[in-house]
User: Fold these one by one.
Assistant:
Number 1:
Amino acid sequence: MAKKWKVVFLVFFSIVVILVCVVAIMRVGTQGASPQETVNYDKDGLKLEVVYCRPYKKGRLIFGTKEAGALQPFGQYWRLGANDATSLKLNRDVTFAGRPLKAGRYAVYAVPGEKTWQIGINSEANRWGKAEPDYSKDVLTVDVPVIYTDEVTEQLKINFEPTKTGANMVIRWENAMVVIPIG
């Protein structure tokens, strides 16, 4: 009987090890195609950090209608990157697109539209994968205009640009650009 339990334990342990290895390989593989980046801003006592994974355009239509074959169709949830949920960390209370937001670490996501994007700030900052967040944990949602440029951004880029009252969080991909004031 003891030998039978040893075999069961060995099989179970082997399955767990294989699953852990498969998940690790999958994460490394997807991060190679969409590398992770951390962007920091530190000026006048305001510290911001965004951590996101940067997918490439690769000749695809990124934003548009589902019928046109867009990778990110208008009106649908997007984790604002690839792999892990994009996170935003704030060292102090700020205004985010004119609305109050407490200091902390959050997941940030988007619902791109043709003329505006809805940006959501969610208290579940440590999520992996494509699944939508628990919207009841949203602490803030704002609509911001999207600007279309002639310049094509091949790889998703999020950065901070200083302003007189704080910084703009700027999101660029394909020919779309969204600017979110943080102060």
Number 2:
Amino acid sequence: MAIDDVGIKSALYLVRHTAVAVPGGTCYGRSDVALQAPVDRHAAWLRTMLPADVPVFCSPLSRCLVLAEALCPAPGAPIVDGRLVEMDFGDWEMRRFDDIVREQIEAWSRDPFGFRPPGGECGREVMVRVQAALAGIMAKHASAVIVSHGGPLRGIHGTLLGLPMQHWLACKIEPGSLVVLRQGADQWHAEYIQCPESAKS
């Protein structure tokens, strides 16, 4: 049975794509990498958790689009929004973190929102575009599903919960997980739901 949002002013259902077929320790952001496994069983589980007839928005990268398409009943289709894409790590993309200049990694660690990887974008720029996408979605829809990446979803989560920006990255949104954000009378509340092993693809 889908999660009940009766009496809730607004509800957003944040879905992170499932695990990717990338070696551990590799930096990937805007790179269009493949998933480890088909999404059929995972999408079937998510459909039991999500309300029917709400729009599904997603990043254009295939690891999100494939899952979003599986969540949309025919003839529905996900709404692709490029602003929901993961951070562009520029010259770091698809390189092992161990192979990146140590001073650059340390500078990023000290200032994750202000530091810009060579040829890429900084975290603050990511949040500006993600918040613009969020505002557009909420202006038209009381409820929506957003299928995206760890960075953008943490930004949405932190924005709606009113958390200081420096705390946003501490939120654990694991691959394949679901975060339900509900707007109450005076604030937003979050529920974190992990996919059970039996539903993983």
